[in-house]
Amino acid sequence: MVRALALALGIGFALACPAAPPVAPGEPSAQPAPDAARIELRYQGERAACALLPAGEERDTCLREAAAARAEALRGRLDSGAADYDANAVARCEALQGDLRRDCISRMRGAGSVSGSVEGGGLLREYRTRELGPDPGR
User: Fold this and answer.
1) 3-state SS string over the chain?
2) pLDDT 10s digits, 60-93
3) Can you give the pTM of this predicted structure?
4) pLDDT tens figures, 35-66
């Protein structure tokens, strides 16, 4: 229960305080400077979530991770991962051609239905397209 609450608090703070997009090393940032007050608030929330964990290695690791995330956020290099996830999903379709690629990208962006689970071995994304053939009466 405590671990679930700590995780929920951590996720809540992560969603409430989104991170700045990543910047390649040596590349000037096109983003505004990180909001230090918001980053500090997020860090304090993560520390509070860590404090709910049992004393020991798990709590220590949680605190180290929170501090590392804070440092990266202050440098403007903490990424939520959403952009990479979307890009990776669409990149899987690059090997396909024409209509197959178009349909694949549609599936990756949510068209059609999804069944299965990661735990169960994978997700099946299905998108049906009806194609009408030539009129047999002609």
Assistant:
1) CHHHHHHHHHHHHHHHCCCCCCCCCCCCCCCCCCCHHHHHHHHHHHHHHHHCCCCCHHHHHHHHHHHHHHHHHHCCCCCCCHHHHHHHHHHCCCCCCHHHHHHHHHHHCCCCEEEEECCCCEEEEECCCCCCCCCCCC
2) 999 999 999 999 989 888 766 666 777 888 888 9
3) 0.40
4) 888 899 999 999 999 999 988 989 999 999 99
